[in-house]
Each structure stands twice: as structure tokens, then as C-alpha cells.
Automatic annotation (TrEMBL):
Residues 7-227 form the ABC transporter domain. The lineage of its organism: Bacteria, Bacillati, Bacillota, Clostridia, Eubacteriales. InterPro entries: AAA+_ATPase, ABC_transporter-like_ATP-bd, ABC_transporter-like_CS, MacB-like_ATP-bd, P-loop_NTPase. Belongs to the ABC transporter superfamily. One of its GO terms (molecular function) is ATP binding. This is ABC transporter ATP-binding protein. Pfam families: ABC_tran (PF00005). One of its GO terms (cellular component) is membrane protein complex.
Amino acid sequence: MGKNCVIDARNIVKIYENGAEELKVLDDVSLQVYQGDFFAILGPSGSGKSTLMNILGCLDLPSTGEYYLDGVDVLAAEENQLADIRNKKIGFIFQKFNLLPRLTAAQNVMLPLLYRGEDEAKAFQLAKEKLSLLGLSERINHRPNELSGGQQQRVAIARAIIGSPQLLLADEPTGNLDSKSSGDAMEIFRELNRQGNTIVIITHDTEVADQVKKIAYIRDGKIHENY
């Protein structure tokens, strides 16, 4: 039996209108990512990769084209359905970590489950387990400003995986890290992929892209190579 297609984007076009002018940021992009893939979308600044990430993450919609996420027709979904998809099907990992400064590491990690209405005690226990897996068992009650950049990134990864999403979507996940922390983060991603997680990394860094299994190159809003 073939692998499930997690991302099926077909002929995606994204146009931004500025008065009478139109700016085509994505131009006929098609992309398929299958269950268990470890995938990079590699491109320079201004290539359209951030816009593509926003569409793949259901944070934005294309101007034209089709997008199916884990079999769901995203363009036919209502806003509340899109919010549900973002919460349950996608784990986001951002370059700037996006941790809430007043919350502890455990409280930040719990958030996706609390948004689903999960029991707080159960969510806290799961958060502790995920943080322990990532080597942060001694840091669960620390706030972000009490953590190093690498530790903050691990908290962000724990938050992304706590709800067992179909897709982990990482936007420049090593961009704010030193070389050692960057290497540690990529090793965590490799281990998560070995465990069966589907991971897509958006990056401009060829050293990061060299560590994944499949790469799609994007330039001037077009996918130029895909393997």
C-alpha cells in the first residue's frame, strides 16, 4: 500500500495586489510530500518560500490552484475548520521560536492541547514528557528568558510535536542558533523523522538542506527542481 500524501499542492499561484500593480509571488507551484518524508524547501530571500510556507501551513490561501492537506481540501474549508487543521494537523516551529515570555517551558508546550480543550493536568504531564525527551527535564519551570537559544528551540519543537500532528512545518528553524545548537536541532529533526514524523523545513541554508532526504528548490516563485 502506498504512502499517504500529506501535502498535495497543485498549480499554486499567489498574487498580491498593490493598487493597479500585481506581484506574482508564487507561479504555478506543485509539490507533493508523503507520510514519513524529511523534506526541505530551499531558496534565497525573496524566492517565495515564506509565502509557500504560509499556504502549506494554512496561514494564507493561494490566489488560484488546489491544496489538499492530509486529504482535506483546504480551499473549501471554513475559517473555523482551518483553525482546527492548524491546531490538530500541523506542528509549527518558527525561527524566532514564538514562545510566550510570561509562561514557563511546560506551559508553552501545553498550549496546543489546551486550545483543543484537553484536561490541564493531562496536558502538563504530556508537556513534561516531551520536554524530558528533548533533554529539558530540569528546565520545565523556566521562562524563555531563562533559557538559551538552543533550549528555546527545543521547547518550540516540544510544543510542535505534543499534539501528534500529521506534519511538522519548520520555518528557518536554525536561523537564530549558533552552529552547535543548529547541529543539535537538526539531530532532533532526524530522530523525529526516524520515529515516523513527516517534516518540511523551509530554509535558505544549503547545509541544513543537505541533511534532509528530499529537496525542492524555489526561485522567483517557481519550483525548479524536486526530488
